[in-house]
Structures are given as C-alpha cells and as structure tokens.
Amino acid sequence: MKASKLIVLISSILVVSSITVSCKKDKKEDVTDSDTSAAADHSYVENLSNDMDNIGDQAGNSASGSSLSTYKIINPGNSLLSTCAVVSVFHADSTNSDTLLVDFGATNCVGNDGRVRNGQIRYVYSGGKHYRDSGIVITVTPINYSVEGNQVSGTKTITNKGRISNGNFVWEISSNLSIVKANNGGTLTWSCSRTKTLLNTASVYSGPAVPINWPQAKIAITGNATGTSAAGNSYTASITNALIRDFTCSPSPGNPHRHPFIQGTFDFTPSGKATRTVDFGAGTCDMAATVTINGNTYNIML
C-alpha cells in the first residue's frame, strides 16, 4: 500500500515538473520581435538618396537661374548646398553629355539641413541640361562621399519622363547604393526602383527657363527596394501608400532645411522575420513615425 502511494507521489511530481519545464520553455521562446533598427536605416537611406537628387538640381542652377556654371552657391538660404560646396562643369554645350561635379571638400561641409558632408557627387547629363528637362537622363555617382560620417558609394540613374501625371513632372529612378556606417556601425546595401512625382508642379514650375522652386515643392515616392541591413540580413521593402515629402515642412528648429517624409507607408520584411509596417503619418509636419510588428506598434524619430 505504501509502495502504491509512493508511486502515485513520484508520478505527481514528475507531471508537475514536466508542466513547469514546459511553461518555462514556452516563456523563453515567446520573445517579442521589436527590432526597428533596419527599417529606420532604410528610411535614412531613402532620404539620403532623395537629397542627392535635389543637390544635383540645385547645383545646376545659379542664383540668377542660368544653368551649369562654375560657382560657389551665392544664396544658400534655399539650398542644401552651403558656401563650402564648390560646383564645377565640364563640356557644357549641346553636343556632349555635361558633367556637373559638386565638391563638399575634405573637412566637414555643413549644409543648411544640418548634415555634415564630405567628398564629391558627380552628375552626368544626357538629353538635356536640367533636372526639369523632359527626357533627360542623369547618372549620379558619389566619389569619396560621406554624410554624417556614413560613407556612400554606388550609382543611380534618373530619367525625367515629362509631365505625365495630371500635369505633374515624373521621374523614374533606379539606385544601387552602399553605405558604410560611421563608428563601425556596419554596411547597408540598397537597390531600388522608384517613381518620383512633383505633386504641385503647376505651383513651383513656371517654364523651362526657370528652376523648379524646390523650397515650396511637394513630392511623392512609390516603388520597391531590396538590400541588406547593417547586421548583414537581407530584406525587401515595398511602398504601400506613396511617401510624401513636403519641402515647406521643417519640424527640426535647429535644422530648418531638413524635410523628412511626413505621410505614407511601406512594408519592410527582413529575411526570416515578420513584416514591419512603417507609417510616416497623415501629413503632420513632425519627425515622428511608427513601426508595427506583429500587431505591436513602436514610435521612432527620423
């Protein structure tokens, strides 16, 4: 009888132990996926790439509106180019592809957006002389170029498709960029196919002889991208609602020419992980965005 009770007792202990171990195991495996760093890096590269477009367009127009001349920017108040950026032009005539070189120098050129740049960006134009010219193709190449200590290399191609979207300018953009982050932060790769639309063309474009008034511009970006994060993990990204950048929005008081995306969403899927939905909001002028993973929403600052 005692032996039977002992067997029952031992069996009960084993069952309880099994349940306890199982619960501990389940608890250990229930790790919430809250990593937003790769999605934030992707957003940073998106802005960095877009800034390269704008720098080229602004550099191709002097303060008087003439195109492709050698100068230091005269009035940097409406430009990403500060007075430390030197712009040079080669083969500036109608029979050759024109080369525009923007040189930020070797010692920390601070732009009006508050970002520190070094090195050069080369723009080769064919089929026109301005970013606004329908049919122009621009090949963009960073040369020893860095932004905030992040080294940028690769190439991108911009094609002006004309005013094909409700009278608005449209550009097709393909990019293959690599960014080595400062302070041994890892290396990002980024390849994308983008469509960029100037949503208020009629308000900021008055004809081919006058530069686009970018400080009043509003653009939309759509398309897809692939790449690898700083940790070396591959990912895909797909814009699900057009990303909106309004250049009249300056939410950072210390950096009045920093214009983040303020509207739109994209899905970001790291290899082996759940899709993250990044939401820039509904158009409020701020530096905030959210990342939603498995139903959990996290706030990030751009």
Draw up the topology in text.
Blueprint: H1 2-29, H2 37-59, E1 71-72, E2 86-90, E3 98-103, E4 109-110, E5 116-126, E6 137-147, E7 150-165, E8 168-180, E9 187-198, H3 201-204, E10 218-228, E11 234-246, E12 261-270, E13 276-282, E14 288-293, E15 296-301
Antiparallel strand pairs: 1-2, 2-3, 3-5, 4-5, 5-6, 6-7, 7-8, 8-9, 9-10, 10-11, 11-12, 12-13, 13-14, 14-15
Outline the structure in words.
There is one protein chain. By secondary structure, this protein is α+β, with helices and mostly antiparallel strands. The chain is built from three helices and 15 strands. It has one domain. 18% of the residues lie in helices and 43% in strands. The protein is globular, with a radius of gyration of 25 Å.
What are the key terms here?
single chain, 302 residues, alpha+beta, 15-stranded antiparallel sheet, 15 strands, disordered N terminus
Q: CA-to-CA gap between the ends? A: 73 Å
Mean pLDDT across residues: 82
Shape: globular
SS-based class: alpha+beta
Compute the number of helices.
3
Sheet having the most strands: 15 strands, antiparallel
User: Taking Cα atoms only, what radius of gyration do you get, to the nearest Å?
Assistant: 25 Å
The oligomeric state of the chains shown is single chain
Structural domain count:
1
What percent of residues adopt helix (DSSP H or I)? 10-25%
Low-confidence stretches: 1-30, 63-71
Q: How many distinct beta strands?
A: 15
Order of helices and strands: HHEEEEEEEEEHEEEEEE
Portion in strands: 35-45%
